[in-house]
């Protein structure tokens, strides 16, 4: 039976607007209360999150997650910890790939409520719990795979989260990070910028009926976050090795895979 940690049942009270034009005029990653704003934002958009993901990725987001699972090398005996699991898509994909034990962790209880429902419908036995990527309530060396999809840039201090991923991985374990990136081709980059900075914020906000500023934050958070190369450096600095990166769909997102060294 799918389980959820009781802490995940606490619903956050969020302000109507998490991100204003004034907030986003600067680098949102430097906001001292970034974590609180991110939680409020995801609470506001949870109900239409999946719909917007499918529509605005042109149904590619599930293919990217499937590829991340393939690259993880997950096995039937694997324990997987999926951080910033959101509504549970990647957690469910790992379970359907045969992982024996999957734990999905997210900062926002509204997202976890949806993940619980989706996992139950899929018949996926997953434990979901509310938690902070920078301070995971898990023992050292318990995971064969740690994953995070489209979540590392939303963490208050990404380096702390990456250090936590290293801590909870077994020696030889695999880290998989899926995150948006900048397409290297100038023509594709131009059209991607037009789409993500002008078209998507309008249509996604309309579909979600959102007043939190979530879809204004999204392109700004991508543009001001570390490049794929810089992210790889952060992963290496945390102690990981065998780092490889796999651009997806002309480089609009990148999968970064790394291993914790064997003991």
Topology, pairings included?
Layout: E1 3-4, H1 21-24, H2 34-45, H3 49-56, H4 61-72, E2 79-83, H5 89-96, E3 101-106, H6 109-122, E4 127-130, E5 143-149, H7 158-168, E6 169-180, H8 186-208, H9 214-223, H10 228-237, E7 241-248, E8 253-259
What does this 3D model show about the protein?
With 263 residues, the protein is α/β, with parallel strands linked by helices. It has a single domain, classed as 3-Layer(aba) Sandwich (Rossmann fold), CATH 3.40.50. The protein is 43% helix and 19% strand. It contains ten helices and eight strands. It has helices at 21-24, 34-45, 49-56, 61-72, 89-96, 109-122, 158-168, 186-208, 214-223, 228-237; strands spanning 3-4, 79-83, 101-106, 127-130, 143-149, 169-180, 241-248, 253-259. Strands 1-4-3-2-5-6-8-7 form an eight-stranded mixed β-sheet, sandwiched between helices. β5, α7 and β6 form a beta-alpha-beta unit. α4 crosses α5 (89-96) and α8 packs antiparallel against α9. The termini are far apart. The model is unreliable at 1-15 (pLDDT under 50).
């Amino acid at each position: 039976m799918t389980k959820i940690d009781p802490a995940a049942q606490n619903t956050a009270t969020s302000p109507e607007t998490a991100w204003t034009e004034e907030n986003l005029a600067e680098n949102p990653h430097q906001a001292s209360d970034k974590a609180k704003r991110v939680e409020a934002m995801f609470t506001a958009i949870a109900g239409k999150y999946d719909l917007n993901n499918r529509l605005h990725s042109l149904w590619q987001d599930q293919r990217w997650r499937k590829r991340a699972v393939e690259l993880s090398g997950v096995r039937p005996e694997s324990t997987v910890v999926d951080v910033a699991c959101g509504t549970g898509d990647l957690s469910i994909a790992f379970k359907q790939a045969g992982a024996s034990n999957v734990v999905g962790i997210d900062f926002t209880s509204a997202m976890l409520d949806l993940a619980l429902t989706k996992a139950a419908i899929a018949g996926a036995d997953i434990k979901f719990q509310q938690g902070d990527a920078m301070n995971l309530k898990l023992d050292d060396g318990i995971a064969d795979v740690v994953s995070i999809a489209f979540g590392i840039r939303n963490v208050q201090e990404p380096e702390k989260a990456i250090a936590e991923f290293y801590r909870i991985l077994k020696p030889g374990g695999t880290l998989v990070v899926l995150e948006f990136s900048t397409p290297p081709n100038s023509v594709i980059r131009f059209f991607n910028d037009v789409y993500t900075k002008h078209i998507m914020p309008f249509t996604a906000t309309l579909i979600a009926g959102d007043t939190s500023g979530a879809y204004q934050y999204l392109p700004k958070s991508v543009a001001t976050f570390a490049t794929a190369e810089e992210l790889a450096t952060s992963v290496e600095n945390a102690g990981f090795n065998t780092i490889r990166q796999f651009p997806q769909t002309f480089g609009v997102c990148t999968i970064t895979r790394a291993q914790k060294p064997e003991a």
